[in-house]
Write the structure tokens for this entry.
Amino acid sequence: MATRNISRCVEKALGDIVTAENRWHGWNGDALPVVNSLVNLILQQYSAQQPSVWHPSLTYMFPDLPAKYEAANSEISQQTLAKLCEIVGKMSVQCANIKKAATELTDLAQANTGAEPSFYFTLGQYAELAHGAHKLYESAMEMRVEYVSDLGTIVKGLAGESVAYPAGAFDSDKHFVKLLTWESSPGLKEGRLEISNHSTILTLQDFDELIRNE
């Protein structure tokens, strides 16, 4: 493949990584108010299931009020969970797009060992960096997928299904920490990307800036 064509393919793959990252963060921001709403619904549902919450005179006049409230809350919780799962699915697609672009860079490096376009790093080194970026996003996705799975289990349990609740299922402080982690993705942009047999160690933020400057 001619060097010019290789350069175009590399630029496209690197551009695809930036695009996927931007979309991932966009969907992550969209997911935050949804997951926050779901947590609030869960805590409200759990509170509503405690007999002490309802004043005796209220349940005397409206004996079916707690059941109606729980049924309505449960329905909204399931709808909110479905919306959250849809958004997380879209985030997973962007994570897969980063992996696809990294694989394209690997294929280019293997197919063009004698032709290196004019970039800061070699094709093989860019491929390593791209795969490292994918691993960081994959790790960030694992936290979100696990948390959504836990929330789904809690929603099922509150709806009457027999489930084993995850630890801290109704601990508002633990949910608050999870929400902060979801929002800020600590360590993601600061994650280290290493290159074999090379002294340079970049962060994901460095890699992103490098791509934009190529």
The chain has six helices and two strands.
